[in-house]
Specification:
The structure holds three protein chains of three kinds.
Chain A: E1 9-14, H1 15-26, E2 30-33, H2 40-49, E3 56-59, H3 63-75, E4 80-84, H4 86-101, E5 106-114, E6 120-124, H5 129-134, E7 144-145, H6 150-167, E8 170-176, H7 177-181, E9 183-188, E10 233-235, H8 249-264, H9 267-270, E11 273-276, E12 283-287, H10 292-304, E13 309-314, E14 316-318, H11 322-331, E15 334-339, H12 346-352, E16 356-361, H13 370-381
Parallel strand pairs in A: 2-3, 2-4, 4-5, 5-8, 7-8, 12-13, 12-15, 15-16
Antiparallel strand pairs in A: 1-9, 5-6, 7-14, 11-13
Helix pairs in contact in A: 1-2, 1-6, 3-4, 10-13
Chain B: E1 3-11, H1 16-30, E2 34-41, E3 49-57, E4 71-74, H2 77-85, E5 93-97, E6 111-114, H3 116-122, H4 129-141, H5 146-156, H6 161-176
Chain C: H1 31-45, E1 52-56, E2 71-74, H2 80-90, E3 95-101, H3 102-108, H4 110-119, E4 124-129, H5 164-170, E5 175-180, H6 184-196, E6 201-206, H7 222-232, E7 233-235, E8 254-261, H8 267-280
Helix pairs in contact in C: 1-6, 3-4
Classes of the chains: A alpha/beta, B alpha/beta, C alpha/beta.
């Protein structure tokens, strides 16, 4: 008996399905979404599986409604998720900002496809990296995880829920069409070994005078939910710790600094990277997501040819692991940045790197083959 | 490291994707290998081309996609033509449905043909042609063992175990006999 | 001479955030009346204030939740309804009331509005129709009567406006009403009825905006609009909704009433059944 959750064991599963099963294990009990390729399998599987575990699925009229519905559900205390791809992610941006402003935990999965605009709906892209960071107006600090396998899509979906609950904000999983549609091995660990984080609730009873839903004495305030009796006011306007709107620079300073600080102060705790033959590497490939897969092979072949190549893989792209990249760049002669876009993550890398940084831009529609990256490694090694 | 890049190519309704799933699942769950399956379709919702690429390896797979297959299984003429046009010519082995694919233009590649769809029809279910082909694939290449594939097939089709086993073994038999080798 | 304190407590203090007063609404505005009616309805509803939730979007009427001493969510422009949808689905026992303006609910938010009615979500929507975007400066919207002079229609509004009761009824809402800010008893009763409806309950409240609408359209004060309500309103509960278009010209009636009051299963009812069925045969993982 696993209460309807996927039992521990080994599976051969599609990435999108693994993501959905992970969400259920993480405690997700509400999904709202709108059909879009190549994320559809997540919604379809959730529509089938969520009610089996007592959860709720709804297909909304668009992606704006989807993100708002999950923010509404989360404010009633239920872990919530949506899944989409580029065009839908664009539609969600305003209200991702709303979720940030009112500090609502939720998870947005973006299975990236080729863009811009309608682009190549059925083929891979990595063009939404910067949108994940800066897509909504105003200041906030995004958290975005980028999986490179079916297993990692599963693992990082759970981590995304945990980070959302811990830091009280929307968290993004930036997958891509290849990972989403790919079938691969999945090991589901015993459930009791999976770390699950739940949001902190107020530790004072409802009715205490002067209750502050965004109490400044906490880095992340415990979350009062609708119906608990705290009678809170929540607004997307710039607000004080009581939740009341004010049009003053003083309140704005507190409000915005609070939003970014809770992530900036914990960035090193949130960062995750993988180091691959980096110890003595002077040519470092910095990758993320599916692009790391050809890069492993390229680096291995380069090593076999006597080239001191290594790879740093960003598992979290936001907050950007700048200290890690800076350290790697101190020892490297050249950093190569292959991306399935015209150069996005190369910008924060260049901002901190102390060596030459070369972008290997690649249009959406296909993953680079190992040769593409290997050729670049060889040419800079000469 | 032993890595096999396998491509199954046919059209919608032939169970191409299912065939790829069975292959990957047998490698991962029954033989403890790593496998990656990626799928591609033509834009048509019904009857368009359909391709399942399966990478199987003893070790963790780095690059999970198939650029050029070691083994190509084609169950439609378009599958053959498109693979050649895209440079996805098999390095080691071509397996084809001899009732549906004309291979007269193919030279210099090891080939095994068998009338998989006809065999399936004779068994009463056209849809199990993919199982016939998996039997032939296992017999010809040995990349995934008969019993591993059969285990997955039994698990997936508990209501038609006998029929599917028969289809699989027919594929094995035809491949063993050389099928309609050109 | 010390001032005599006549009262230290207002009977509505329990439900109003006194620390947020004074409010932002202009003299003659009708939104405060809507708020008073909502407060009365909550008090009479028998549902404890802790279970009431008010959700709004953006605009003058969407500021109402900021003055209500209950759980109150001031969301983004046009998106109050999908927020309420999510909240209602996961916590059906909350008594959610969406209060927002015409520009918010049926202009930018029109798509959410029609789909929420179609699905029969179980919450109340009080739409304060003042014919304009008050907060941004008197622009025209989907309810602005044809011919009105607006800040973005200086030559007069050339578009047709929504007939909201007809629209909402055509989508199958179990409760549809229209009142004005003159009809405080009827409006309070209607909100109370809405709270008891199982499904989507809709109330259009026609409300004066002397500052942004009335000034250029023959209703320069709130009182002018209230006088118009008194003269033009005809209560007709069984009205033919094809004939309830709003036309502010002299001599045309403004039809008000509780137009629709039927029973039908709500989204929550269907969702609950679906979950019951799904939980019985849990596959593939029992």
């Amino acid at each position: 008996m696993t209460d309807g959750l996927i039992p521990p064991g080994k599976y051969f599963m599609q990435g999108n399905i693994a993501c959905a099963e992970a969400a259920l294990i993480a405690g997700c009990r509400f999904f709202a979404g709108y059909p879009i390729t190549p994320s559809n399998e997540i919604a379809q599987w959730m529509s089938y599986r969520l009610p089996q575990v007592g959860g709720h699925f709804i297909q909304m009229e668009d992606e704006i409604a989807s993100i708002m519905a999950i923010i509404g559900a989360s404010n009633a205390g239920v872990k919530s998720m949506t899944a989409t791809s580029g065009p839908g992610f664009s539609l969600m941006q305003e209200n991702i900002g709303f979720g940030m402003m009112i500090e609502t935990p939720c998870v947005i999965v973006n299975v990236q496809r080729g863009g811009p605009s309608t682009g190549i709906p059925t083929l891979v892209g990595q063009g939404d990296m910067m949108q994940a960071r800066w897509g909504s107006h105003g200041d906030y600090e995004a958290i975005a995880y980028v999986p490179n396998s079916v297993q990692e899509f599963f693992d990082l979906t759970i981590k995304a829920f945990n980070a959302a609950e811990e830091y009280r904000q929307p968290v993004i999983v930036l997958a891509d069409q290849t990972i989403g549609h790919m079938y691969g091995p999945l090991v589901v660990p015993p459930h009791e070994e999976i770390k699950i984080v739940n949001r902190k609730l107020p530790n004072v009873p409802p009715g205490v005078p002067d209750f502050k839903p965004f109490d400044a004495k906490y880095e992340v305030a415990p979350m009062a939910l609708a119906g608990m009796g705290y009678r809170i006011h929540v607004t997307g306007l710039t607000h004080d710790e009581k939740g009341y709107p004010y049009y003053t620079h003083e309140v704005s300073t507190w409000c915005v600094k609070h939003l970014v600080s809770k992530i900036r102060n914990n960035a090193e705790k949130i960062w995750e990277v993988e180091r691959f033959t980096l110890d003595d590497a002077d040519i470092v490939v910095i990758t993320y997501g599916i692009t790391s897969r050809p890069a492993y092979q390229a680096v291995k072949v380069a090593r076999s040819e006597g080239i001191k190549a290594g790879m740093l893989r960003l598992i979290t792209v936001w907050p950007f692991p700048e200290e890690v990249v800076r350290k790697v760049s101190e020892q490297a002669k050249v950093i190569l940045v292959p991306e399935i876009n015209m150069g996005q993550m190369i910008h924060p890398i260049r901002e901190v790197a102390e060596c030459l940084v070369i972008g290997l831009s690649w249009a959406p529609g296909a993953v680079q083959t190992p040769d593409v990256i290997l050729d670049a490694i060889r040419s800079v090694s000469r | 490291m032993v890595r096999w890049d396998i491509s199954l190519f046919g059209f919608g309704g032939q169970g191409i994707i299912r065939g790829g799933q069975i292959l990957g699942e047998a490698a991962v769950l029954e033989e403890g290998k790593d496998a990656a399956l990626s799928i591609a379709y033509g834009p048509e919702q019904v009857g368009g081309w359909s391709r399942a690429d399966v990478v199987i390896s003893d070790e963790q797979i780095d690059f999970p996609l198939v650029v050029k297959p070691d083994v190509l299984i084609v169950m439609s003429q378009e599958g053959l033509d498109r693979s050649w046009k895209e440079g996805r010519i098999p390095r080691k082995q071509l397996i084809y449905d001899s009732g549906l694919v004309d291979v007269s233009t193919v030279k210099g590649i090891k080939m095994v043909g068998l009338p998989a769809t006809k065999i399936a029809e004779q068994l009463g279910r056209r849809i199990i042609a993919n199982i016939v082909v998996l039997g032939a694939f296992s017999e010809v290449t040995g990349i995934v063992k008969h019993e591993s594939l059969l285990k997955v097939i039994r698990r997936r089709f508990p209501k038609a175990i006998e029929l599917n086993e028969k289809a699989f073994m027919e594929g094995v038999r035809h491949a063993r006999g050389g099928g309609a080798v050109v | 001479m010390p001032k005599e304190v006549l009262a230290t407590k207002h009977p509505d203090d329990e439900l109003i955030r006194a620390d947020r007063i004074p409010h932002i609404w202009c003299p003659g505005c009708g939104i405060g009346i809507v708020m008073k009616c909502y407060v009365e309805a909550i008090k009479r509803s028998g549902i404890p204030p802790e279970r009431h939730v008010v959700v709004s979007g953006i605009g003058c009427s969407s500021r109402l939740p900021g003055y209500m001493n209950i759980d109150s969510y001031h969301t983004t422009h046009g998106r109050a309804i999908p927020f309420a949808v999510g909240m209602n689905i996961v916590k059906p026992d909350l008594e959610i009331t969406v209060i927002a303006g015409d520009g918010d609910l049926v202009t930018i938010g029109g798509n959410h509005f029609i789909h929420a009615i179609r699905r029969n979500h179980n919450f109340n929507v009080v739409l304060v129709n003042n014919f304009t975007y008050g907060m941004t400066g008197g622009q025209y919207g989907a309810t602005t009567p044809i011919g009105s002079k607006m800040s973005t229609a200086p030559y007069g509004m050339i578009e047709y406006s929504f007939n909201l009761p007809l629209l909402v009824a055509s989508l199958g809402a179990p409760f549809v009403a229209r009142w004005t800010t003159l009809h405080i008893r009827q409006l309070t009763d209607a909100i109370l009825k809405a709270m008891k409806v199982n499904g989507f309950a809709f109330i259009e409240v026609v409300s004066p905006c002397p500052t942004q609408y009335g000034e250029d359209n023959n209703f320069p004060t709130g009182m002018d609009m209230m006088k118009y309500f008194r003269e033009a309103c005809v209560v007709e509960h069984e009205a033919d909704l094809r004939k309830v278009d709003i036309d502010l010209r002299p001599g045309k009636p403004l039809i008000v009433g509780n137009f629709v009051h039927i029973e039908k299963p709500s989204y929550n009812d269907m969702d609950r059944k679906l979950i019951e069925i799904a939980m019985k045969g849990r596959k593939p993982y029992g």
